[in-house]
Amino acid sequence: MAATKIIDAPRNGHEMAPLNTRARGDGTHGVTIVLTAPQRNSVQSVDIPGGDPERAAWSGKMQFFLSIIGYSVGLGNIWRFPYLCQQNGGGAFLIPFMIMLILEGIPLFLIELGMGQRMRLGALGVWNTIHPWLGGIGISSCIVTLFVALYYNVIITWVFFYLFNSFRYPLPWSSCPTNGTGFVLEECAKSSETTYFWYRTTLDAAPSMDEPGGLKWWIVLCLMLSWTIVFFIVMKGIQSSGKVVYFTSLFPYIVLTIFFIRGITLRGAGAGLMHMYTPKVEKLLEPTVWLDAATQVFYSFGLAFGSLIAFGSYNTPKNNCVRDVLLVSVCNAVTAIYASVVIFAILGFKATMNVDRCVASNTEILVKHSFLENKNATTLEYEHAMDRLNDTEKTLFQLSECTLSKELDNAAEGTGLAFIVFTQAIVELPGAPFWAVLFFTMLLSLGLGSQIGILEGMLCTLFDIDIIKRVKKQHVTGVVCLFCFTVGFIFCTGAGEYWLKMFDSFAGTIGLVVVALMEMIAVIFIYGHERFTEDIYQMTGYRPGLYWQLTWRYIGPFIMVCILASSVVFMVIRNPTYGAWNAELGVVEQKEYPSWVMGIALSMILAGVLPMPIVFLMRSFQCLKVDLDIHQGSIRRNETTASTKEMIDNDDDNMSPDMPPQDSLAATRFTIGDFEDDDDENDFSGPALGGHVKTQSDGDFSDDDEEDKPMTMRMMMMRPTTTSNVLNVPTSRKQNYSKKDAYDV
């Protein structure tokens, strides 16, 4: 009789037949499960549940460190943190920032990096391994990451456009264009040179989101270039992106240092730094300051994207992830402070130049009305003349208030800082094109470093899905980049910046915070903080103490709940608006989002949150057949003798019907692997393998054929071992089992 062989077949990722399912048609059934106790009594014994033995790995410690630095240190360190410091108490803001870094950022950072290194899986695989009901966390993380990747690359697109224009002399944003008669365009005259270049030349901004205008071909070309470069960087995973990070991570520090040396030698740099870092301690009494600090820490680390889990999964099991977390955290904070020094040194110089122009303009007016004798009046004479005039007279003569503090208070954040304020400061520098090229190349490096990490986290999650594992990574990456490029056309219209701000305000806020909160709950309260502590000890030799336990179990979740609640409250009580460009007045006006745009925003929020309860409900009520062994190899079902059949059936019958899956699983303790009976003719496998059973005759199925097949993860996990095929059944039905045993599958 021809023997029946199992041909490796795909699994859908959620099916597992019950233990007492009839496996063949002769009336017998039963299961052989090999049980071994994992060794946990030494640092050297680390069992990796579900880890992929063929998983890609970092070529060295430096490559990993630079990759995670390039991902964590992004554009927010340059254009967000300095603005927060200025608005929230100057140097006093460093106090809540450091406190939130210690209580929120570092603990959650270690959870993501540690779980990725422990499981050696992406975000989807990690949460499915902890419990199948938590699989929605990985899906939500992937969806939110997709939304962020869509608009983050648009910022890189704008940087490319400015970089190309930086090679022109003089810089195109250094002066206003003129019309055919030689007069300056009114739109530019009413705003400024850099503002006009941003809203009209670069964006060709539409008056509102309801009137987006057509596609801007120059933005489309730059967007295509951006996605093409990103594709070639990440198409082979860390084998290709790991080489690029040596540039994207180190180059920004070189540029920052050059700007720092140049900036502190400029006139007014000291005034800018004093204005920024002068502590206003009274600001610490405002709750919004602490909320801004917590939010900045959360987003600056890139938490909840799944990227940190992916980066950790490429580490060896013996890597000291605690040391990595501390080093990256310190580097991230120092970089933010260092960048703030550079930015405000340059902005101090710009403010000083603006004050000088303001004083010169006022002086001409005072001379014209005989309040001063000539334009070469001293500073003391100028101030004395201004003091003699009251407010009414100053308004009548159109005299401006020329103070350094007023100029510095006008600092912007985000795209306004990078493309309007800082570009104006660059114009004032000698050799402006050189500094412009340096600045935008630095922004390009920062943007690409973060975008690589964002895409790596999303792709790693996708490759946890069995059906996608069969497709080459280059093809999957190409499809993802093409899809993102196509959707990105909405950012290439005249309303492109308005759409980007909408995505930034809604797509990547509430969803990320909910995912981060669920991650902490899943690891600390479901996986178990004792077990996670033991995992860290097994991998690093360091056992997390009281600080880690308090922040993991109480302080961290409380801070995340506060961030989530405040985000929802502010979104409700503050009618969401966006800044639209008014070409007639040359100013930005605040407008309310159209109702249909708010519908899209709400849909994005729900798309990032709903997968978690949906997967939980579908699997808890068994709308899907739950595979408790998902992403951990397979429990091989083999025919057994009549004696073992009865023991298995009895043991299954004694399972409490209301026992949750993790507790029922605790009744036996498994080792991942596959064990075959001596009699191959009786080898039938049920649907636990997740696919159909294909048969071949003895003559058609040879060892040579088996050797020719590529070694897959499933085949490695299904190779016979030397462990005896023995079933250990508990002798006492009243034996207690700990929750910890449920996760040794």
TrEMBL record:
<feature type="transmembrane region" description="Helical">
    <location>
        <begin position="593"/>
        <end position="618"/>
    </location>
</feature>
<dbReference type="GO" id="GO:0046872">
    <property type="term" value="F:metal ion binding"/>
</dbReference>
<dbReference type="GO" id="GO:0089718">
    <property type="term" value="P:amino acid import across plasma membrane"/>
</dbReference>
<dbReference type="GO" id="GO:0015179">
    <property type="term" value="F:L-amino acid transmembrane transporter activity"/>
</dbReference>
<dbReference type="GO" id="GO:0015187">
    <property type="term" value="F:glycine transmembrane transporter activity"/>
</dbReference>
<keyword id="KW-1133">Transmembrane helix</keyword>
<feature type="transmembrane region" description="Helical">
    <location>
        <begin position="506"/>
        <end position="529"/>
    </location>
</feature>
<keyword id="KW-0472">Membrane</keyword>
<feature type="binding site">
    <location>
        <position position="332"/>
    </location>
    <ligand>
        <name>Na(+)</name>
    </ligand>
</feature>
<feature type="transmembrane region" description="Helical">
    <location>
        <begin position="217"/>
        <end position="238"/>
    </location>
</feature>
<feature type="transmembrane region" description="Helical">
    <location>
        <begin position="133"/>
        <end position="164"/>
    </location>
</feature>
<feature type="binding site">
    <location>
        <position position="70"/>
    </location>
    <ligand>
        <name>Na(+)</name>
    </ligand>
</feature>
<feature type="transmembrane region" description="Helical">
    <location>
        <begin position="64"/>
        <end position="81"/>
    </location>
</feature>
<feature type="transmembrane region" description="Helical">
    <location>
        <begin position="326"/>
        <end position="347"/>
    </location>
</feature>
<protein>
    <recommendedName>
        <fullName>Transporter</fullName>
    </recommendedName>
</protein>
<feature type="binding site">
    <location>
        <position position="450"/>
    </location>
    <ligand>
        <name>Na(+)</name>
    </ligand>
</feature>
<feature type="binding site">
    <location>
        <position position="77"/>
    </location>
    <ligand>
        <name>Na(+)</name>
    </ligand>
</feature>
<feature type="transmembrane region" description="Helical">
    <location>
        <begin position="250"/>
        <end position="277"/>
    </location>
</feature>
<keyword id="KW-0812">Transmembrane</keyword>
<feature type="region of interest" description="Disordered">
    <location>
        <begin position="676"/>
        <end position="745"/>
    </location>
</feature>
<dbReference type="Pfam" id="PF00209">
    <property type="entry name" value="SNF"/>
</dbReference>
<feature type="compositionally biased region" description="Low complexity">
    <location>
        <begin position="712"/>
        <end position="723"/>
    </location>
</feature>
<dbReference type="GO" id="GO:0005886">
    <property type="term" value="C:plasma membrane"/>
</dbReference>
<dbReference type="InterPro" id="IPR000175">
    <property type="entry name" value="Na/ntran_symport"/>
</dbReference>
<dbReference type="GO" id="GO:0005283">
    <property type="term" value="F:amino acid:sodium symporter activity"/>
</dbReference>
<keyword id="KW-0769">Symport</keyword>
<dbReference type="InterPro" id="IPR037272">
    <property type="entry name" value="SNS_sf"/>
</dbReference>
<feature type="binding site">
    <location>
        <position position="300"/>
    </location>
    <ligand>
        <name>Na(+)</name>
    </ligand>
</feature>
<keyword id="KW-0813">Transport</keyword>
<keyword id="KW-0915">Sodium</keyword>
<feature type="transmembrane region" description="Helical">
    <location>
        <begin position="297"/>
        <end position="314"/>
    </location>
</feature>
<comment type="similarity">
    <text>Belongs to the sodium:neurotransmitter symporter (SNF) (TC 2.A.22) family.</text>
</comment>
<feature type="transmembrane region" description="Helical">
    <location>
        <begin position="550"/>
        <end position="573"/>
    </location>
</feature>
<feature type="binding site">
    <location>
        <position position="446"/>
    </location>
    <ligand>
        <name>Na(+)</name>
    </ligand>
</feature>
<feature type="transmembrane region" description="Helical">
    <location>
        <begin position="476"/>
        <end position="500"/>
    </location>
</feature>
<keyword id="KW-0479">Metal-binding</keyword>
<feature type="binding site">
    <location>
        <position position="73"/>
    </location>
    <ligand>
        <name>Na(+)</name>
    </ligand>
</feature>
<feature type="transmembrane region" description="Helical">
    <location>
        <begin position="93"/>
        <end position="113"/>
    </location>
</feature>
<feature type="compositionally biased region" description="Polar residues">
    <location>
        <begin position="724"/>
        <end position="735"/>
    </location>
</feature>
<feature type="transmembrane region" description="Helical">
    <location>
        <begin position="434"/>
        <end position="455"/>
    </location>
</feature>
